[in-house]
Design a protein that fits this description.
Number of helices: 14
Shape: globular
Number of strands: 0
Strand content: under 5%
Order of helices and strands: HHHHHHHHHHHHHH
Distance between the termini: 42 Å
Low-confidence stretches: none
Mean pLDDT: 86
Oligomer: single chain
């Protein structure tokens, strides 16, 4: 798994994943708002592209392990806050004050607090702008605890398998508390953290057996999200054995560049798909796709400008001190 989880290849796969997520959301909202079908087979292709979320979560959590062990707890959380909050707060202000104008100021404040605190990832929340970032915030908050827990079972194959079974079974009751898209991926989170320990110690090949057991478990679960969560690690393991230096190609460099700004692009596509598709006058899926990608690019660029501006202000303050 060392090749897949290298920084360059991780960015490439994250770039591919975010493009797949955009395609998935285009299909979803075109059907919701316009009642039209995509080309034959397109629905299956685009819907299956939702596994991009699994790939993104897995690679993110593996990479998070390196960051966690290189810094203390305060710095770990501070780096996550600096990366997420400036762009996310900007996104929330745009969404709440542009697309929720018919909602009272009190309700908009409640929505804002729910999203920024991670509460929107909870099942009982009736209205949420999007589920992913609140889920990510909860995942980051709990990561140190999960890291230490998985560290205790690492390299004990019986305990590793037992924890895999527990993570699969625990996903069901957890889905009563959190949104399904977050809770049902619990086995993936566990396998990603476990993979980090094997990569760190140069033993990534040893993950094959636990990944195979996870795939075997996928045939017995009755939930597609859990099945994907069990299959994706082995898929990445196999890909790791055959991956080439993809960043030397133009398309490789393009996807890698996209992968560096997945947060900005994800939030930009939420606006472009969830809120703007209904306003596009055309019913042609190709035209809609081109417009959505163009709009996503522009909005993501603006979000990135906000991030860079705040980073620049922070650097100037540190230089003065």
């Amino acid at each position: 798994m060392d090749k897949i989880c290298s920084k360059a290849n991780r960015h490439f796969l994250m770039g591919v994943s975010i493009v797949a997520i955009i395609l998935c959301h285009i299909t979803q909202f075109v059907g919701t708002y316009k009642g039209i079908r995509t080309f034959i087979g397109g629905e299956f292709f685009f819907s299956s592209a939702a596994i991009g979320v699994d790939i993104f979560f897995f690679l993110s959590l593996v990479g998070l392990g390196f960051s966690f062990e290189k810094s203390n707890l305060i710095n770990f959380y501070w780096r996550r806050i600096k990366r997420i909050f400036p762009v996310y707060v900007t996104f929330l202000f745009v969404a709440l004050f542009w697309f929720y104008q018919d909602v009272s100021s009190y309700d908009r404040i409640v929505l804002f607090l729910q999203q920024i605190s991670g509460i929107s990832a909870l099942k009982f929340v009736l209205e949420r702008i999007e589920w992913y970032v609140p889920s990510l915030l909860i995942l980051y908050a709990l990561y140190p605890l999960a890291f230490l827990l998985v560290k205790r079972v690492y390299n004990n194959r019986r305990m590793e398998i037992l924890f895999l079974f527990v993570s699969i079974l625990a996903a069901y009751p957890l889905s009563k508390l959190f949104v399904n898209l977050f809770a049902m991926r619990l086995p993936l989170y566990y396998l990603a953290i476990l993979t980090y320990f094997y990569i760190r110690n140069g033993e990534s090949e040893k993950t094959a057996s636990i990944f195979l057991i996870a795939v075997a478990c996928s045939f017995f679960v009755q939930n597609q999200l859990i099945s994907y969560a069990c299959i994706i690690p082995l898929f990445l393991f196999v890909l790791n054995r055959y991956i080439v230096i993809i960043n030397e190609t133009r398309i490789g460099r393009a996807f890698s560049w996209v992968g560096k700004y997945t947060l900005e692009i994800y939030l930009a596509q939420v606006i472009a798909t969830k809120y703007f598709i209904r306003l596009i006058p055309s019913d042609n899926i190709i035209v809609i796709t081109i417009i959505v990608f163009a709009m996503t690019s522009v909005i993501a660029f603006l979000f990135n400008m906000v991030q860079r501006m705040l980073d620049s202000i922070g650097s100037q303050k540190n230089a003065k001190n």
